[in-house]
Design a protein that fits this description.
32% of the residues lie in helices and 23% in strands. It is α/β, with parallel strands linked by helices and 291 residues long. The protein is globular, with a radius of gyration of 17 Å. Helix 1 runs parallel beside helix 3, helix 7 packs across helix 8 and helix 8 crosses helix 10. It is built from eleven helices and 14 strands.
Length: 291
Amino acid sequence: MKPTVALVRSESHYDGVYKALELIEDEIREDLKGKRKILVKPNFVSTKRQLAATHVDAVRAVLDMISKYYSGKIVIGEGPAVSSLMTGLKNFGYLDLQKEYDVEFVDLNEDDYVELEGYDSQLKPLKLRMSKTLVESDYRISVALPKTHDCVIATLSIKNVVVGGLVKGEKGKIHQGYRAINLNIAKLARYVMPHLGVIDGFVGMEGRGPVSGDPVDLRVAAASFYPVSLDAVMCKIMGFNPMDIGYLYYLDKWGIGVANLEKIEILGEPIEGLVRKFKPHPRYQEMLNWK
């Protein structure tokens, strides 16, 4: 059976995400049965620039959907690259979600951790500390946005969880050269892979992402239980070959997911009508040296 990706046109951060989730709503209802603790992981690589961070309305759409079928505890967990989680929650309007949905906020930077193994610049073993809350959550939902990146070409649902889940002081350690960082993301993803990936592409970022790039009026949203396939589809929409993204290549090669677009089924809008070629980061050609 082919992995499926729900793909829709979007009229707002909320509209697109909710419509994408509606296309897989029956599967979401079944998937949530018996779950004890859900962790929703937005992206706050910046706690000050909204363009670089997951919009609160995208998360609100996710919460509205899952709350129809789940009444247990929901944690919103993130480990910002700089500053504190609280700064991002205040700046981006997330604190209202506590009153609306009774969610709990967890700063993954300050969390207890488990030690996982990655690679250093010589591809020798390197210990990396990952948030224990993230690893032990029995249902992880990544709510990301499509952005170019200064080390791995594109950052989407998988990288959002992997890098954001590393505790304070660890995020920089995965940056061990282009090959090693892609291997690290792929290897760590095996422990914290989202069970449901959501991408709010109402507005994306091109050029000097993941923080300082320029806005792209993309108006697309996507969701899937197959994050590798989800990210591959969005890479194609951004104008990139998914197999040029090192961590997607490795996850596909290792059989952990499917990045080959010919083996992915699209629910909703065809990819071809949504492609909007993103301007890559200026170091794009260098990044291909992971191969």
